[in-house]
Design a protein that fits this description.
Elements lengths: L5 E4 L2 E6 L7 E3 L3 E3 L2 E9 L3 E7 L3 H5 L2 E11 L6 E3 L3 E4 L7 E4 L7 E12 L5 E2 L13 H12 L6 E5 L3 E4 L1 H7 L1 H8 L3 H5 L1 E4 L4 H11 L5 H6 L1 H10 L3 H13 L6 H11 L2 H13 L7 H10 L2 H14 L4
Parallel strand pairs: 13-15
Antiparallel strand pairs: 1-2, 2-11, 3-5, 4-5, 5-6, 6-10, 7-8, 7-9, 7-11, 11-12, 13-14
Helix pairs in contact: 3-4, 8-9, 9-11, 10-11, 11-13
């Protein structure tokens, strides 16, 4: 069926329904969010019943998901209406594990949004799939990482001092130079950093700079990476650390929502992150989330770059698909 496809971006899934009348039933095509394939179904009698469930598979049987999510139904026309569910957290195995009845005044043409706030693998101590532990350490062996961690934590043969906004840190010129062409240039040419063996990074706090060093030494913890993503992005751009910049962009793409999308769009424009910029514009216009930020959009436009505003206008003309 033409409108059985569900579009996804980040943790948001959107299903556009056309010509759905009383006594009807429809099931979506499978769509992937997290590590599972999902499906939605709708049935209309007295109420519109919406079900969310994982596609039947070996994965969903052996490792069923515990999903924390919220649904929204939006109608078309001049009197656009929104029906928003409470936040649900359910173990989902079959189509009978979750059903949400919506008032029967929903028209025949509408949009169903599912926003996944968290996904966990059921069993024992249910663990979130966001973030995935160990992704920052996949390129190095444990023994090498232990040595680098000791060098940093214990200050073994450190030869450079870093002055941050609120404290000082010790590091190694060789590690910094191997990680960043900007640092390498500082120590190679006759600059003040080479002579004094001191670097000033006063636009970072000591905590966020510690996270930067932990990344460069291969010992960063995932929770620290997530906490300091924006500071790390600024440092990656400033010191030309391409792999860190890419990692920050991919991470910021994973949890776009109405509360952060305008900020993410501004960061994407500032640091020339085309994937993140496209993701934010798609979220706002293709998925219709511009309605959710109408109170904040005026302040955003007062500060936004003129060229960015032009791109947003072009996105409205080319990508907006009203019902």
């Amino acid at each position: 069926m033409a409108d059985s496809k569900v579009e996804t971006i980040s943790r948001l899934a959107q299903w556009r329904i056309e010509n759905f009348g009383p006594g009807s039933y429809r099931k979506s095509d499978p769509f992937k969010v997290g590590i599972w394939n999902w499906q939605l179904s709708i049935e209309k009698n007295r109420y519109l019943y919406i079900r969310l469930f994982p596609e039947t598979s070996k994965l969903s049987k052996e490792n069923p998901p515990i999903a924390r999510f919220v649904l929204r139904v939006s109608t078309s026309g001049a009197n656009r209406k929104f029906y928003i569910s409470p936040v649900h957290e359910r173990l989902l195995r079959t189509s009978e594990d979750f059903v949400w009845p919506v008032d029967s005044t929903v028209y025949s043409r509408f949009i169903i949004d599912v926003e996944f706030l968290d996904l966990k693998i059921w069993g024992g101590e249910a663990s979130s799939i966001y973030p995935i532990d160990g992704t920052m350490q996949s390129l190095s062996t444990e023994s090498t990482l232990r040595c680098l961690a000791r060098m940093l934590d214990e200050g073994i043969h450190t030869d450079v001092t870093i002055n941050t906004a609120d404290g000082t840190l010790k590091a190694h010129k060789a590690i910094l130079s191997a990680s960043s062409p900007v640092f390498q240039s500082m120590f190679h040419h006759d600059l003040k950093e080479k002579e004094s063996s001191t670097i000033c990074i006063e636009d970072m706090s000591m905590e966020s700079c510690t996270a930067l060093l932990s990344y460069l030494y291969g010992t960063i913890k995932q929770e620290d990476f997530w906490k300091h993503r924006l500071a790390l992005l600024g440092a990656a751009n400033k010191y030309d650390i391409a792999d860190l910049k890419d990692a920050c962009e991919e991470s910021l793409l994973e949890d776009i929502n109405s509360g952060n999308v305008l900020g993410r769009l501004q960061e994407a424009w500032l640091y020339q992150l085309n994937k993140l910029k496209k993701g934010c514009l798609t979220y706002l216009f293709d998925f219709g989330k511009i309605y959710d930020v109408r109170d904040e959009i005026n302040n955003f436009f007062k500060q936004a770059d003129r060229q960015l505003m032009l791109e947003m206008f072009q996105e409205v003309l080319t990508a907006w698909r009203p019902l």
